[in-house]
């Protein structure tokens, strides 16, 4: 069975009832050819071209939506999408057997225009309503694998509420507290208000990293940053005067600095993949 559903904003309905039928027996999305080359999601790991992330055991996650936990889904369980529902579409869900495809819908993808359609005959519609469909979905869930595949976390946050906990921004208070750490000395009026969005995410990761270290390893981290980051270190603290210096410190906390063994070139790893051994 092939079915395309729309998730509609409606606070008076349950999460399951908010899905409405659009069309049946039509393939909407294409399955990417390269899902076998996917990697487990890690905010420190950047994707190569056309590569996908994955989250295994997805149904066990707090942000998994109810429709994916249903044993059997029948099209008769859903009402048809009405004209009034069109502007309320949050995202699309297309499912075929045990494979679910999701696409976030922005306002720019909900189009209401006059148009002439071409086919076996020409047809004029003075109030045409259409939804722009991407070639590939924002997320794919394969039920028998219990695995979610995606490429951009920010694209699926509106679909799987709470999934951004996997890569959240540090709050203003968390940033302020971090910058008050005993190994940081702020200079040149640098403060939390001057930290940009992407660096806020790195701070959230750094806070988590530091929390996992005992005192001995924290000392090792300090020595590693001193040796590699090129920062001024006075009175047992790194002097941070700018966003750029803060990023150097964060690269050190995540151990991004390394030296090539042959050419002895010093580099910063823009992306990392953790390797596990048996």
Molecular structure report:
This protein has a 9-stranded mixed beta sheet with strand order 3-4-11-10-7-6-1-2-5. The protein has 278 residues and is an alpha+beta fold. The longest helix is centred in the last third of the chain and has 15 residues. It is built from 5 helices and 16 strands. It folds into 2 domains: 163 residues, no CATH class; 97 residues, no CATH class.
State the gist of this model.
By secondary structure, the chain is an alpha+beta fold. The chain is built from five helices and 16 strands. It has two domains: 2-164, no CATH class; 172-268, no CATH class.
Based on CA atoms alone, the radius of gyration comes out at: 24 Å
Q: Helical content, roughly?
A: 10-25%
Please mark out the parts with pLDDT under 50 across 5 or more consecutive residues, or reply none: none
Share of residues in strands: 25-35%
Q: What general outline do the C-alpha atoms trace?
A: elongated
What distance lies between the first and last C-alpha atoms, to the nearest angstrom? 42 Å
The run of helices and strands is EEEEEEEEEEEHHEHHEEHEE
Number of domains: 2
Going across the major beta sheet, what is the strand order? 3-4-11-10-7-6-1-2-5
């Amino acid at each position: 069975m092939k079915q395309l559903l729309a998730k509609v904003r409606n606070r008076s309905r349950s999460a399951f009832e908010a899905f409405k039928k659009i069309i049946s027996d039509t393939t909407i999305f294409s399955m990417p050819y390269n899902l076998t080359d996917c990697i487990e999601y890690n905010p420190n790991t950047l994707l190569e071209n056309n590569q996908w992330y994955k989250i295994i055991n997805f149904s066990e996650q707090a942000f998994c939506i109810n429709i994916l936990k249903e044993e059997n889904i029948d099209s008769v369980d859903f009402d048809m999408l009405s004209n009034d529902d069109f502007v309320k579409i949050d995202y699309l869900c297309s499912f075929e057997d045990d494979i679910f495809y999701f696409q976030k819908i922005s306002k720019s993808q909900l189009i209401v225009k006059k148009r002439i359609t071409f086919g076996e005959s020409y047809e004029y519609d003075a109030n045409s309503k259409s939804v722009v469909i991407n070639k590939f979905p924002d997320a794919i869930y394969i039920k028998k694998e219990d695995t979610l595949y995606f490429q951009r976390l920010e694209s699926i946050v509106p679909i799987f509420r709470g999934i951004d906990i996997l890569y959240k921004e540090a709050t203003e208070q968390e940033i302020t507290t971090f910058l008050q750490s005993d190994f940081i000395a702020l200079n040149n009026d640098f403060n939390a208000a001057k930290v940009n969005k992407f660096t806020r995410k790195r701070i959230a990761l750094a806070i988590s990293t530091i929390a996992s270290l005992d005192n001995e390893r924290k000392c090792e981290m300090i020595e590693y940053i001193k040796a590699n980051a090129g920062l001024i270190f006075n009175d047992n603290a790194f002097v941070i005067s700018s966003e750029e210096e803060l990023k150097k410190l964060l690269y050190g906390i995540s151990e991004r600095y390394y030296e090539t063994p042959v050419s002895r070139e010093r580099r910063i790893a823009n992306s990392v993949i953790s390797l596990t051994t048996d």
